Amino acid sequence: MNHFTLSAIPIEPDVMRPGLRAGGAGAFVEFQGWVRDHADGRDVVGLEYQAYDVLANREGERIVLETLERFDITAAACVHRTGALAVGECAVWVGVSAAHRDAAFAACRHIIDEVKSRVPIWKRETYADGDSGWVHPEG
Amino acid sequence: MKIVVRYFASLRDAAGCDEQKIETSAADADALFHELRAQHGFAWPTDRLRVAINGAFAQWSTRLADGDEVVFLPPVSGG
What is the predicted ipTM? Predict the structure, then answer.
């Protein structure tokens, strides 16, 4: 099973969670990134995510595997949406199970931070005034 | 040699296509980018981009080979 996947259809956390269950896991931490209705003072009405699929899958997988090695956790997975999303939809999901909560919180934070900075996925925001543009963060 | 270039996000908009097959003598990824930058008017300097060859991150100085797939990666914004 891949630890990182791209999904062109809505993410279903209820379907993802059972895969992270284990008898030794006393903690489960999940992060969901949702489409927000504003960005930099502008009203956002929707997003489009575009991914360089081959490299996004490889880099995402590498991040989760690194996290499994570096933190004292039981299991971890991440799903990132592609395509058009409406305000409120889940854009990214990270789940981590561990024996104890400290490692689960830290690993979950690590995965989302690394995914945001390393995985070749781009977001185009569409604004209420009809304008739209790709988001390419500075530095 | 023939190279396939795939474009994403704002570079796709600037190139006007998601893929371009190009016959080039560019020795490395840097030379190829400058050739295509002149053709499409890309606004990005190479120090703000990364490059991938055949689905793996590469260096700008990486030599190109016939049939390579090259992708120039603008700053990412997933999550």
Answer: 0.95
